[in-house]
Structures are given as structure tokens and as C-alpha cells.
Amino acid sequence: MTVLQPTSARPGRDAITVASVPSGHVYVRHLAPENGPAPRRLPDPDPSDPTRSATQRWWPPVMLDPEWAASADFDVFHLQFGFDAVSPERLSDLVRVLRERGKPLVLTVHDLRNPHHRTRRLHDEQLDVLVPAADALVTLTDGAAGEIRERWGREAQVLPHPHVVDLRTMAVAQDARARRRSWDFRVGLHVKSLRAAMDPMAILPTLVETVGSLPGAVLQVDAHRDVLDDAGDRRDAELASYLRDRQAAGELELRVHDYFSDAELWNYLGSLDVSVLPYRFGTHSGWLEACRDLGTTVVAPTCGYYADQGPVLSYLLDEDRYDAGTLAESIVLAHETRPRLGASIDLRRHQRAHVARAHDLLYRALVQAAG
């Protein structure tokens, strides 16, 4: 592929229009430079009325409909995520439409194992359509690129995950962390709405025992109401009973609430010293990146490529194995050393500029090659 030199993205003939699936997600928004020209990304169509922008509502993605792709005005189609429930046959139809129109397809491989699917079969079948068909592949880590090479014989361009938290909030949070009393130590486990990849019951006994043995340490568990309330749509009776019992025994702080807003989520993550990811499978994590933005140490499982994203403390957990000792060791190490594993604002600015430039060059090269 010929890589073009960067040019100004002026309105009119030189501007690249991207059908980005999705467009409004924070990851995609931060693919643009902080300042200056950028490719034009079409707004997400409203699923209830595709003629309107969905702003923050992009699910299910209308752009994945072959009928939409057959007539929409764009230069490049860039699929990030959102195809969880789309059949491989439907994705094949989308690829065919793009080929017939001469529209390049870019695929960013965020997930090699879908964290929302209990088994891997459907996601594998979806990737078997998309990865070979893509005109260009992007992924977030060297480890993921290696797996793509091994499975499909394709080379993916590795571009790091840009910051998740806005830079102003990062600065405030990092300043507050620097002034925090050093003897406080708060370990957080957020079970959210229990996506398929999560297995909090595997690690909770270790966390309760380990955190309870550390001076000044508190284990805070957050969960959504749909998981712990008696009438919750996703109620997990075993987890609810365990957490209520441990709370009554004074062994953890339990906080049950609805979904956090972005501001609430940043405040929550910024209040933690450690955030533990309870995933048995997965690939990459935006949660991990938000923690890095806010200076919160991540204790991540060995499944996926979390440790490739940035510095973390690791413990052994995957679909087949769990080693409680490695989790305890990482929690104790975090307590003893208070490691500074976060990302600086300067680093995030540099990353964002690099990622934005790389995407602009990629789009321009593909449009030139398509003629």
C-alpha cells in the first residue's frame, strides 16, 4: 500500500468522508487531532430514523445495513465495533456492497474474543468474513497483531488506544491524586452488569482475604441494580448473597447504583488506588485506558492483551485457569509500592497526534488506491 504524505483536509475535493461504525464513541472521537483539520466522520444515524443523527445513541449501528451502505455518500468505510449481533451472512452482504461501489473497508480489530459472547463461535465467524475482506487492518497491540497474523496471514497496523478521559479532567484528577494521603488504599471491583467475560465470584474470596490483611486497605465493590436488586433483570443470586454477607461482616464496602455518567465514572475511578479487572476472556480494555488516564493502577488478568496496552500488574485468570496467589501478590505489591503506572498528559497528547496522523494517511492512501 502506498502511504501518502499528509495534506490539509480542506472542505471540498480534498476532504475525506468516513463512514465510521460507530462515530460518536469516545474512542473514535479521540482519533481526531486535538486541533486542526481531520477527516469528516458521518454522524451515527438514529436507529429509529436513519435520516437523523443519533448523537450518543448509535446501537444498533444503521451503517452496518447493506441498504444504507449502498446509497450513503462516503469515501471510506471504517468498522470499529458494534457488529456483535450481526450475522456473518449480513456482513458478507455489506462487504459485497462496498466492493461493488469501490469503497475501501478498514477494520480495527478491537476484540479477537468478544467479551459479550459466552462462546467464541459467532465472533470467529464474523471475523472470518471481515478480516480477509478488509483493505486495511488496524489493532491496538503487538500481541493482537501477532494473533491476526497467525490466524489469517494478514498484517495489521498497530496504533495505541488514545486517551479515554478528556485531558482537562485528567489534569484535575492527577493533581488530586498527588495530594491524597498516602496511607489510604482503596481497591475497586466493578461488576457492572456482568458481561459474559466477567467472573467476579472466582476472585472475590481472594480479594476479601488479601485486602483485609493490609493496613488501611478497603475493598469497594460496585454493581448495577439489575445484578443485585431482587427484581433486577440480570440478578445473580449467588453474587448478591455473597456481597451482602461480606458487607454485613464489614469485609467490604458495597455500592449498588445505576449506570454512571462519564463524570461519575471518572470520579469513581479516580478515587481508587487499584481497579481489578475480573475477566476470563477478552482482548483489549477501554476501562484500563481510563484508569491509566486517571493514575489508577490496573490489576489485569493474563487473558487477552491487556498488559500490551500499557503497564499493569497481572494475575493468572483465563477461561481454564485461575491462580489466587498471583492475584494476592499483585494486590500486596500495589499496596507496598504504590506504583505510578498511569499515563501522563504529555504522553496522551503525543499518542493522540500520532494516531490521528496515522488514520489520516491511511484513509488518503486507500482513497488514492481506489481511484
From TrEMBL:
Q: Which UniProt keywords apply?
A: Transferase
Alphabetized GO MF terms: transferase activity
Q: Show the Gene3D superfamilies listed in the entry.
A: Glycogen Phosphorylase B
Q: Is the Transferase keyword given for this protein?
A: yes
SUPFAM superfamilies recorded: UDP-Glycosyltransferase/glycogen phosphorylase
From what superkingdom does this record's organism come?
Bacteria
What's the name of the protein? Glycosyltransferase Family 4
Q: What is the native source organism of this protein? A: Nocardioides lianchengensis
Q: State the organism's lineage.
A: Bacteria, Bacillati, Actinomycetota, Actinomycetes, Propionibacteriales
